[in-house]
Amino acid sequence: MSQSVMGQAMVTTEDITVLGKVSTAFGIKGWVKVYSYTDPITNILDYERWLIKVGGEWRPYQVEDGQTQGKGLTAKLKGVSDRDMALALSQLEIGVPTSELPEPAENEHYWFQLEGLKVVNTHGQWLGRVKELFESGGGNLVMVVAACEGSLDRQERLLPYVDAIVLDVDLDKGEIQVEWDSDF
C-alpha cells in the first residue's frame, strides 16, 4: 500500500479519489492541460490541493489558478514553473482525499462507490459485480456487470444506469437491485 505525505497526515491510496489527469503542458510558463472526470468538468478546480501520482506515489500540488480553455481546462500548479516541468506531469492521475468530496445528494452516488457492488435482479439472481461505469454518449450512463465467483453465469452485461433498471442501491449491504432479465 503506497503512502504519501499531504501536510502532516499520511494518505493511503484507499483514501484518494481520482478526479482526472494531467494531459500535457500548456504554453511555456508551467501551465498544464487537465482532463477532468468531474461533472461539470470545472468542479476539479474547486479543490485547492491536488494529489498527482508521480512514480507510483501521490504527491501534493497547490493549485494556484485554473480556467477553461476551449472545451478543456488548464491549471497552474505551485512549483511548476516551465514547460519541461509541466511535461513531466503528462498523463499522470489527479486525485484528492476522498474525505474532501462533497456529500452526494440523497439517492446519488459516486461512481467509485458503485464499483465492486453485487448486482442482483428482482428474481434474486446474482448477475455479477459492477466492474465499471462509463458514459455512452448523450449523457447515458452504462454499468458494466462482470461475472464473478457465485454469479449466475460467466456473462458480462452492460446495463443502462437509469431509474427504470436500477431500482435500489444499498451501499451498506454492498448490493444493487436491478430490473433485468438474466437472458439479456
Helices and strands in order, then pairings?
Layout: E1 3-6, E2 9-12, E3 16-26, E4 31-36, E5 49-54, E6 57-69, E7 72-77, H1 83-87, E8 93-97, H2 111-114, E9 118-121, E10 126-135, E11 141-146, E12 157-160, E13 166-170, E14 175-178
Parallel strand pairs: 9-14
Antiparallel strand pairs: 1-2, 3-4, 3-8, 4-7, 5-6, 5-8, 6-7, 9-10, 10-11, 11-12, 13-14
Offer a few descriptive terms.
single chain, 184 residues, mainly beta, Elongation Factor Tu (Ef-tu), domain 3, SH3 type barrels, 2 domains, 6-stranded mixed sheet, 2 helices, 14 strands, 5% helix, 48% strand, disordered N terminus
Task: Describe this entry's structure for a reader.
This protein is mainly beta and 184 residues long. It folds into two domains: 3-100, RimM (Elongation Factor Tu (Ef-tu), domain 3), CATH 2.40.30; 111-178, SH3 type barrels (Roll). Helices cover 5% and strands 48% of the residues. It contains two helices and 14 strands, in the order βββββββαβαββββββ. The protein has helices at residues 83-87, 111-114; strands at residues 3-6, 9-12, 16-26, 31-36, 49-54, 57-69, 72-77, 93-97, 118-121, 126-135, 141-146, 157-160, 166-170, 175-178. The strands form three sheets. The chain has a six-stranded antiparallel β-barrel. A six-stranded mixed β-sheet has the order 12-11-10-9-14-13. The model is unreliable at 1-10 (pLDDT under 50).
